[in-house]
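My hope is that you will study the protein record below before we discuss the fold together.
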Amino acid sequence: MSTVHVIDHPLIQHKLTMIRDKETGPKDFRELVNEVALLMAYEVTRDMPLVDVEVETPICITKGRAVAGKKVGLVPILRAGLGMIDGILQLIPTAKVGHIGVYRDPDTLRPVEYYCKLPDDIDQRDLIVIDPMLATGGSAAAAIQFIKDRGGSSIKLMCLLAAPEGIEALHKEHSDVDIYTAAVDERLNGHGYIIPGLGDAGDRLFGTK
C-alpha cells in the first residue's frame, strides 16, 4: 500500500496559509506555490541513493557523496501542475519535464487524455507527477496510468493539498504510488472542491477561469 507523506515543515505550513488566503493575488500566489514546491522537493527526493566519490578540495583530496541511481523526470498535470515546476527545477535543474493533459468526458465521466509528452527514457527515471490539488483523484490516477502504459514504473505524486476521497481513490487505483502533500484537508464539497482548500489552483495561478 502506498504511503501518504504530510510535509509539515513550519516554513511550508506558513506559506501554505498565505496560499489559502483569498486575498493573495496571482503574482504572490505563483511565487508562494513555487517556494513551497521547492521546499517540498527536498522531502520528495529524500530517499535518492548516494555513492561515495573522490573530490579534491583547495586543501586536499577527500571523499564525498553524490546522488546515484535513476535520473529524475517531472510530469505536471495541465494546467495547474505547471505552477509548481519552476520551484522544483531550481532544486533539480537536470530533470526532464513531461506534460499530461486530462479532461473528464461529460457523458461517460471517464478521464480522457488530450495531451501527453513524456521523456523517451521514462522507464529509467524516478518520476514525480505534480498537481497542486488531489481532490477526487480521478485526474491523478488517470495520468499515472498513462505513464505506466508508456513504461514508467517508479512514480510519486506531489501535491499541495489532498482530500481523503482523493487519497482513497489513488490508493485503490495505484497502491504502489506514494503521495507527498503539505496538508490533508477535511473533505470534498458537492462540487468536488477541497474543503477548506484554496479554491481553483489553476484559476488563481493564471488569473483565468
Q: What stands out?
A: Residues 19 and 158 are 16 Å apart (CA to CA). The radius of gyration is 18 Å.
